Amino acid sequence: MESNGIQINEKTCTVILIELIKCDQLELGFEFFYRMLDSGIEVSVFSLTVVVDGLCKNGEINRAMELVEEMVTRGLKPNIITCNIMVNASTKRWKFEELKKILDLMKRVGVDLNVETFKFLVDGFSSCGKIEEAEKVVLEMHQKGFMVGAHLYNLVINGYCRLGNVERAFALFCKMEEENICPNIDTYGILASRVSKMGGSVTAKEFIKEMQTKLNELEVVLV
């Protein structure tokens, strides 16, 4: 690529690429990316990620994966940002076949999952009712030494409550205490709401009373 005899480098091309995709010119951006390759410009993983992001936002996850696979054969390995964009897109759209392919690709090329990857997985599995899968991800995070926040536990606990599996929801609540993770106001709210629907048993009443005390304590702290 040359303009008025001036050689255009990868940095300049990446700026053009970003602007094309930002202006909803995805196809032009895609073509421009290949022109960069054909011109012998050393394409960076950042440029690849720009195109992958554009494709995923357009719902073209398979096309994004195909591009990444092709670039791997050309010697360009995706990074965790590239992969997380695809993971996020597939979990948001409940495209779990695509998700499996992405995770397999990450394993194959040596890109380790990070805390953001796990968050996308928990959120995606929880939102579509795959609560057991979401719980497995949370447990895997502990095994790998990642910090698991109350927010992720809340997603799974709420999922089990929606399914009517209160026993499993409380088991996870106990797991939080085992792992020294402080339940927050949402945790107690989710459990109290579910227990209140169980009827007027003594156990339910006692739990609601305990949860109300915890909620009041948290509100005092927040104020």
UniProtKB/TrEMBL annotation:
Q: Which residue intervals correspond to the PPR repeats?
A: 44-78, 79-113, 114-148, 149-183
**Keyword annotations of the record:** Repeat
Key word Magnesium present: no
Would you indicate the residue range of the signal peptide? none
Q: Which InterPro entries match?
A: PPR-containing_protein, PPR_rpt, TPR-like_helical_dom_sf
Q: Which PROSITE patterns match?
A: PPR
> According to the lineage, what is the superkingdom?
Eukaryota
Q: Which family does it belong to?
A: Belongs to the PPR family. P subfamily.
Tell me which PANTHER family the record gives.
Answer: MEMBRANE-ASSOCIATED SALT-INDUCIBLE PROTEIN-LIKE, REPEAT-CONTAINING PROTEIN, PUTATIVE-RELATED
* Name of the protein this chain belongs to: Pentatricopeptide repeat-containing protein
UniProt organism field: Forsythia ovata
